[in-house]
Specification:
Strand order of the largest sheet: 1-2-3-4
Number of domains: 2
Order of helices and strands: EHHHEEEEEEH
Number of strands: 7
Radius of gyration: 22 Å
Largest sheet: 4 strands, antiparallel
Strand content: 15-25%
Shape: elongated
Structural class: alpha+beta
Length: 173
Amino acid sequence: MTYEYVLTLADFKAAQRLFMRQTLWRRINGFLWIVILPIVGALSLGLLLYDVIFRHFKYPASIGGILAGLAWFGLYLAIMRPITIRRIFKQLSPGGGLEHSVSHELTENEFISRIPGRSEGRFLPAAFYGFAEDEQIAILLVSKKKFLFVPKRAMPEEAWAELRAWLDKNGKR
């Protein structure tokens, strides 16, 4: 049976969060890049501003340069991450919008995913690397770093059970 639904930016963000939670290394890496480095950048900016405003450049030039570089890098990550996520999602859409129509179909021996006017992917069971789901979204991994995502609202529970059974039968869950 074919299911058609609309993907939103919130679905994409939920899929990214689920993907980041799959292994310990991804969690550590995500925590480092999303939390720690922006905090280090903000602290570096604070120290740099404190030195400039209250101490009148008492830090050596090398320390000031390191603090400026850390501040720039940390703040760049904090500002550019949401912009980059939005830009990547827009590239998925045929019109470049923040919502787009998608359909998928599960047959006896393949999973077919379509973005009308853009692409169609046919995946045999051997193509899947793994499967993960939470209460909002499910991801079908086609490699270690690539996945298809389907919101839970897109299909009734019976169809989800059928997909899980199809993946179990082929040893991919």
